[in-house]
Amino acid sequence: MLVDDVGDVIVTNDGATILKQLDVEHPAGKVLVELAQLQDEEVGDGTTSVVIVAAELLKSADALVKSRIHPTTVINGYRLACKEALRYLEKNLSIPVEDLGDETILGAARTSMSSKIIGANADFFSEMVVKAAKLVKTTDATGKVLYPIKAVNVLKAHGKSARESMLVEGYALNCTIASEAMPRKIQNPKIACLDFSLQKSKMHLDLRGRRRPREARSDPPRRN
């Protein structure tokens, strides 16, 4: 339970949310906060675990520096260990998605949602998430399969329950109609793609011919 200066109460067990609400001033602490936020944005889970691992690495690095080992040597050692760890994961623990099967992927999604707010509806949302990830599946020129998760957007709407959420196989705009007389559905529409904004903008004042104020002029001030 977190209570801020205003008095708002936040009840959560998410590591990224807890660290985000804390007022951290120490540089190493700020690194851990940013690390948790990046983990939450990129993966969506494991924020607490990544903070614990990073804290232990910093603790070990501090002990090495106190033993008169240069920080550059410690950094090079960590980079070498990172490369070896990635090589081991790719060789022994990496399995192609096609070989896992849908049930294994659904189980992984269900496990990731178990500690979130929608944990009670993990079965419902796991199928939706896996299907959305498959819809944005792309293959680059080298034949590598990519899943750009940022291409999946979440639109929030009030008034219904969580189980009434739906997956739109296309592009959805979270907006309302300007008039009730407008049609709700159009077959074979023509879409205009504009690369400039249609919003109103203030016109710049024409200051040509006007004398600039003294602080904006380059001529020296007069002396009596």
Automatic annotation (TrEMBL):
The keyword Chaperone applies. SUPFAM superfamilies: GroEL apical domain-like, GroEL equatorial domain-like, GroEL-intermediate domain like. Keywords: ATP-binding, Chaperone, Nucleotide-binding. Residues 215-224 have a biased composition (Basic and acidic residues). The keyword GTP-binding does not apply. Residues 204-224 are annotated as: Disordered. Transmembrane segments: none annotated. One of its GO terms (molecular function) is ATP binding. Pfam families: Cpn60_TCP1 (PF00118). Belongs to the TCP-1 chaperonin family. This is T-complex protein 1 subunit alpha. It comes from Steinernema carpocapsae. The lineage of its organism: Eukaryota, Metazoa, Ecdysozoa, Nematoda, Chromadorea.
